[in-house]
Amino acid sequence: MGRDSEDEGVDTQEAIMRATYRALCKHGYANLTMQAIADEFDKTKGVIHYHYDTKETLLVAFLEYLLDAFNENIAVDENEEPETRLLTLIDTLLFGPPERGEFDHWELMVALLEVRSEAPYNEEFRRQFTHNYETIEATLVAIIEDGIDRGKFRDVDPQLAATLFLTALNGARIYQVALRRDDVAQLTRDGLEAIIDDWLRRSDASTDR
Amino acid sequence: MGRDSEDEGVDTQEAIMRATYRALCKHGYANLTMQAIADEFDKTKGVIHYHYDTKETLLVAFLEYLLDAFNENIAVDENEEPETRLLTLIDTLLFGPPERGEFDHWELMVALLEVRSEAPYNEEFRRQFTHNYETIEATLVAIIEDGIDRGKFRDVDPQLAATLFLTALNGARIYQVALRRDDVAQLTRDGLEAIIDDWLRRSDASTDR
């Protein structure tokens, strides 16, 4: 193993993460064993143990990897108008990024749902999910504050509005993923658009959309 | 076993359900083995196998048991005004029932969160969660339709508004349970109240609250 250059180490870790992802999609979280991961990996099980000495260490690194992929999927253009940015973020969180990234959005959502169900029992998972939550929350608060500053949005409490959007989006993703209720995302999208139009937007503001 | 009267059979099943609940709270879903359940049960493991021949059969019965408890926790008084019923349902879903039932609301939420993470892989779980979703959805739609009929609420699309409330409530529960973000429930409550006051309620309707 000592022969691995740093680059090769990164590539190997990336390969282990991809193997873990494939194993998770195939077997589900409850059956995600080191053996199941090794079966998806083209080197020996020893190589996995060299990089991650316990299953927990591997899963913590894996969650970070999933959340990075998630964050790449939801990046928004900061030059757009607040209302456009808000609707783009809503659409991306509900329907996935317009240009499909490396990961299928829904496979990623199912994977994250499963890892999150362990969060009440795992402090490190909770720390990472909380960071993810706070990142999206801060993005929403910034968009809403910008809309208020520009006179486009009513003078609502940005934190309160951000929480409402974030919980609705998260709840919709969960229902869609867990229950395969494909109509929930579209209904939530329409509901949030109605809230933006009739509650958040100043009735005297021009629409630039 | 043949000596069990029907009542004793029901009592035994109830005892197995309680043992499963204790085992789940103690070990988490991923570690919920038949042995872990048997360890919480005061009869032999054979009695569990007599009533439920596989772990899956037991877990399907257990989910039904959890959802029944959940439905008991969220019952609303149909004689109240629509807005009061809506706020009561919101409060109950966010903070648990005013009079604590047999189950601690948050323990129950954690348990349901974990079982639900398996729903994408389990058709019977999905069927039960979908039924639960549709029950709460129908309750919300009925309250909103009633509010519109009585001239208290604006003429919104009841299905769309119900989905928005339901996804926000579900998302808030998930964040609170999984991330232990205790502020999310209150922020969501305040956000939904603002939506009811400034979007759903007719501005010319009297408030009976």
Automatic annotation (TrEMBL), chains A, B:
Instruction: Give the Pfam families listed for this entry.
Output: TetR_C_6, TetR_N
DNA-binding region boundaries: 33-52
- The source's superkingdom equals Archaea
- GO-annotated molecular function: DNA-binding transcription factor activity; transcription cis-regulatory region binding
Q: Which UniProt keywords apply?
A: DNA-binding, Repressor, Transcription, Transcription regulation
Q: Which residues form the signal peptide?
A: none
Where in this chain does the record put each HTH tetR-type domain?
Answer: 10-70
Q: What is this protein called?
A: TetR family transcriptional regulator
Q: Which organism is it from?
A: Natrarchaeobius halalkaliphilus
